[in-house]
Amino acid sequence: xxxxxxxxxxxxxxxxxxxxxxxxxxxxxxxxxxxxxxxxxxxxxxxxxxxxxxxxxxxxxxxxxxxxxxxxxxxxxxxxxxxxxxxxxxxxxxxxxxxxxxxxxxxxxxxxxxxxxxxxxxxxxxxxxxxxxxxxxxxxxxxxxxxxxxxxxxxxxxxxxxxxxxxxxxxxxxxxxxxxxxxxxxxxxxxxxxxxxxxxxxxxxxxxxxxxxxxxxxxxxxxxxxxxxxxxxxxxxxxxxxxxxxxxxxxxxxxxxxxxxxxxxxx
Length: 267
Description:
Elements: E1 6-11, E2 15-22, E3 25-32, E4 49-51, E5 59-61, H1 75-84, H2 92-102, H3 106-115, H4 123-133, H5 172-182, H6 193-204, H7 216-219, E6 229-230, E7 236-237, H8 247-256
Antiparallel strand pairs: 1-2, 2-3, 4-5, 6-7
Helix pairs in contact: 1-6, 3-4, 3-5
């Protein structure tokens, strides 16, 4: 995201209220529609194509780094975002390729869910987290689910020293139970679409909310995410783009291919 980029806007007819990215922060701007020139704060005003020939609404084309979607605060919000989610057409082949690597190992993912000794944990939660944390390990099962470290020793990367129990080398299934257990899966009961996505974002962390973007951990490769990502050093880079499909995208394709039924609210 560059200085002057527009993040979102609201057209009232008489004025345009929008947010721009300035000096590493979000700034609120107002532009009256009877002003022929774009605001001076925009470093690239020629990027705007504005039609004043119509009485509201205005027609605007601008570089929108992120779709103006409200961040979810509850399971219903996640459900609504899921309904709005459209997979990027050019990425369907890559998404399906990942699913095709997952599916032969469904029984192994189910073993992890069974070892958690709590009801209702779906096998595809384990599979999706495996893809998100270590996509290259799909079908191989040589890396720790929590951070991709090898199973020949306790983890070195954050979270370090895992698993606490047992001795290396660890079975993949036993090691996978560890991060899911301490990240709240044992007390999570709602595996509907909204509940599933709420858990998935909590598992990865809510850091992206600080930057007012939808988490790529869920929405990458869809219309709900464009750019912005934490790099390997843990710093947020507004121009970095996720190079893997998000968990919500994988879930949507699992449903579309009728591999699973759409998860419903427990009742």
